[in-house]
Amino acid sequence: MIRVLSVASECAPLVKTGGLADVVGALPAALAPAGAEMRVLLPGYPAVLSALEDGKVAFEEPDLFGGAARILTGHAAGLSLYAIDAPHLFDRGGSIYLDTSGRDWPDNPERFAALSWIGARIGMGADPGWTPQILHCHDWQAGFVPDYVAAMDGPKPATVLTVHNIAFHGLAAESLIPELRLDPDRFDRDGFEFWGKVSALKAGLMAADKLTTVSPTYAEELMTEDFGMGLDGVMRYRRDDLSGILNGIDEDVWNPATDRHIKTFKTPRGKAAAKTALCRELGLGEAQGPLCVVVTRLTEQKGIDLLLESLPNLLARGGQLAVLGSGNPTFEEALRTTANHPSVAVRIGYDEALSHRMIAGGDAILVPSRFEPCGLTQLYGLRYGTIPLVAMTGGLADTVINASPAAMAVGVATGIQFQPVTADSLRAAFNRLCDLYAVPDVWQRMQRNAMKQPVGWEGSAAAYAQLYGELARPA
Ligand code: ADP
Ligand code: GLC
Fold first, then answer.
1. How far apart are CA 51 and CA 450, in angstroms?
2. pLDDT (0 to 100) of residue 198
C-alpha cells in the first residue's frame, strides 16, 4: 500500500462548503481498493475535534503561527484523520472561511499556512508512527506544502496539488512573507509571487511534483486566458505535469434504490412518487412541462443570473423550477421574488436531506455554470434519471452526452448541453428540454441511459493510484 496524506480545508461529512469536501471525504475509501492508504489532515475546527473518536496526540507544535498546537490522530466518520488542535486559529464561530459578517477571516493566510506547515511536517516524518510517501494537497489552502517541504531537511515525500477551483488564489500581502515562513527568494515569477502579492495557489502550482484537476476538459481550459484566471501561463508552463481526473460520487449515499431521504426507486417509472412528494412539499401544482431543480451555491460561477433571465421561457412552456441554495444576497433576493410565481419554489439555505428529495423528484437538473471544474449535482442527476441540462464547460462537458441529432439517432444521449453560456442559448436549451420531455418514449430512453452511466470512483481511483505509483517509485 502506498501511504498518502490528503491535506485539505474541508471534508464531508465533517465540514463542508462545497464539492471539495465531498471529494476529500470520498477519496480514502475509493483509493483503498486501488492500493493506497490515505489519511486526511484537517484544521481542528470544533466540528472536526468533536467528531474525533479516539484522538491521541501524534506530536506537538509549540509555535504554530501565533500559539501552541497539538496534532491529534484518530478516526471520525470512517476516516483516518489528523486534526490540528490550535484554538487560536480554528476555534471560532462564523464559517470556516468567513467571519459572522461574511468577510474572509483576516488571518486566513496564517490559518491555512498552518495547515500546510503541518502537512509538510507529517510528510517529513513528524509522526513517528506513520510517514506518508505522497502529500496530496487540495486547492490554495494546501498550496504552501511543497515550498515548506523543500525548505525542511531530510528525505522528502512527493507532492501532488489538485485544483478544484482556480478562482480562489489565497492571496496575502508581501509583508507577510517572514511570518508565513516563506523563502523571500521565491517571491518572483518562478515562485509564489502574483502581481505583487503572495499567492498560495501559485506557490503550489509552481512547486508541486504533479498537478491534477477534476476533469479533463477543465485541465485544457485552465491553460486558456478565458478560464485560467491569470494563472493560465503557469498552467501552460506545467502542462507536462498536469492531468485531469474526473470526480466520482459516493454511490451509496446517492443511490435511488436505497436513499433514506426518499421513496426509493429503480426505474424512471418509479420516480413519479418522488416527484409527487416533492411537489406537495414545495407547494407546486400539476404542470405540463418538466420540473427543473437546482441545488447550488448561489454565486456568479453558477450562472444564476442567466437562469433568472431565461426563466420566463421555461415557465411559458409549462415548466416548473425549484431552487435550493444559499450565497450571494442579491441572488437570494432575486430568487425569493421569483418564487411569487406559482410554478417556482425557492428554498434559501443549506439542507442535505432536501437536496436528495429535490434531485430524486425533479425531471431535470440545471447547471448553467460559467465555469465548472467538475460539478457533482449533474452526476447525482444522472444516477436518479433526473436529466442534466448543463453548460458545455469543464466537467459538465465530460459527464453528459448531449441530445444532439446524432446522439438521439443512435439513442445514447443522457442530457442537454448548451453553449455559449448565455441567456439566449439557455433559452434555446429550455426549448429543447421541453420538446424532449413532451415525447415520453424519447424522454424515458434518456433517463434509462442516464441511470446506467458510470458515475462512481472506480476509474478515477485507478488514475490517482497510478499517479501516486509513478511518484513513489524510488529515483
Ligand atoms: P461546488 O463545489 O462548486 O459548490 P459541486 O457541484 O462540485 O459544486 O458540489 C456542490 C456540493 O454541495 C454538492 O454535493 C451539492 O449537493 C452540495 N450543495 C450545494 N448547495 C447545497 C444546498 N443549498 N443544500 C444542500 N447541498 C448543497
Ligand atoms: C470545486 C468546483 C466543482 C468541483 C468541486 C470538487 O468546488 O467548483 O466543480 O466539483 O470543486 O472537485
1. 36
2. 98
The per-residue pLDDT for range 26-84, each reduced to its tens digit, is: 999 999 999 999 999 999 999 999 999 999 999 999 999 999 999 999 999 999 999 99
- Average pLDDT, integer, range 183-197: 97
Q: Is the CB of 19 under 6 A from ligand 2?
A: yes
Distance 141 CA to ligand 2 centre (A): 14
Could you say which ligand is closest to the alpha carbon of residue 215? 2
pLDDT tens track for 179-188: 999 999 999 9
Cell representation of residue 392:
458545455
3-state secondary structure of 442: helix
Q: How many Cα atoms sit within 13 Å of 90 on the Cβ side?
A: 26
Is the Cβ atom of 25 under 6 angstroms away from ligand 2?
A: no
State the average pLDDT over residues 438-445.
Answer: 97
Identify which of 17, 20, 141 to mutate to test ligand 2's pocket (most ligand atoms within 8 A of the CB): 20
Q: Which ligand is nearest to the CA of 13?
A: 1
Task: Work out the average pLDDT over 203-215.
Answer: 98
Domains in the chain, CATH or no CATH each: 2-248+458-471 (3.40.50.2000), 268-452 (3.40.50.2000)
Mutation to probe ligand 1, out of 215, 295, 332 (largest number of atoms < 8 A from CB): 295
pLDDT at 475 over 80: no
Which helix H or strand E contains 353, and what residues bound it? helix 352-361
| Ligand 2 centroid distance, CA of 272 (Å) | 30
Ligand 2, residue 376: give the atom nearest the CA: 10
Structure confidence at residue 474 (pLDDT): 58
* 248 in contact with ligand 1, CB cutoff 6 A: no
Q: 279 is written with which cell numbers?
A: 411537489
Ligand 1 lined by 17 (C-beta under 6 Å)? no
Question: Ligand 1 atom 22: the closest Cα is on which residue?
Answer: 350
pLDDT grade for 473, boundaries at 50, 70 and 90: low
Q: Which of 286, 276, 364 is nearest to 323 (CA)?
A: 364
How far, in Å, CA of 294 to CA of 323, rounded?
5
